[in-house]
Amino acid sequence: MNKVENNKAWFLVLPMLVLVSFSAVIPLMTVVNYSIQDILGNSAFFVGTEWFEKTLNDPDLQGALLRQFAFSFTILAIEVPLGIAIALLMPKKGWQASAVLILVILPLLVPWNVVGSMWQIFTRGDIGLMGYGINALGYDYSITSNATDAWVTIILMDVWHWTPLIALLCYSGLRAIPEAYYQAARIDRASNWAVFRYIQLPKLTNVLVIGVLLRFMHSFMIYAEPFVLTGGGPGSSTTFLSQSLTSMAIGQQDLGPSAAFSIIYFLIILAVSYVFYIAIMNMQKDKVNTQGGA
């Protein structure tokens, strides 16, 4: 019996397609249009790739890009191992597990701009617990005049705010490991390091890739926290790409260069996300092939 093809299901996704068109595709096409034109009053003149060349050759934007990569890779190098360690130490059952989960998740519930305000007060030398305490030890701590202090503080702030995300992802991955693996390890008298190396870490690979991808995307687009905390200073030492883009588009009203900058910004994040997607797909294929061979 021949089945009659029914395409009415497309009507169910039509509202979503319309919403995506208005919220993503149309604004993106508008940005692309601005990036290849010079807007003078009510007139527009085609300039080709001029704004892209200007953006790529801007030393301020090059510096912001380097700072952005340095920040993203630094916080990943800290948050991923720290998140794994926290997940390993978290209780696995009982009321202690629930209590610890609530405590761990608390920083994630704080809005981004509030995080910046909290840490701005926390690091003040006159009333802030951290700033006053460090100064009391004899170190002249100031995020408004010392670039190193500002950098370290922003990194600490991000680690406090977002390490719980990695910890929760790893915790869920650890809880999904069958107890039979641990029983076999106990029978073989495997050390804690061997259990982590050969049982836990391989099972955490997928959630770690997702966690790293999420953290890279957010850290590469970070804006509210450092802007509220340091305003990009001292000087431009903590000015990241998002702050440079906002200043160019809103402060200077340079629509063409800021549109080109936005597209370059978007392509960098898209390229890195694609690399992570390929990594996830390859790991899934290797896992299927391993199970098939077994």
From TrEMBL:
The keyword Transmembrane applies. Belongs to the binding-protein-dependent transport system permease family. It is a multi-pass membrane protein. Residues 65-276 form the ABC transmembrane type-1 domain. Keywords: Membrane, Transmembrane, Transmembrane helix, Transport. It is found in: Cell membrane. Pfam families: BPD_transp_1 (PF00528). InterPro entries: MetI-like, MetI-like_sf, Sugar_ABC_transporter. Its main location: membrane. It comes from Halovibrio salipaludis. This is ABC transporter permease. One of its GO terms (cellular component) is plasma membrane. The keyword S-adenosyl-L-methionine does not apply. The chain crosses the membrane at residues 12-36, 69-89, 101-122, 150-171, 204-224, 259-280. GO terms for biological process: transmembrane transport.
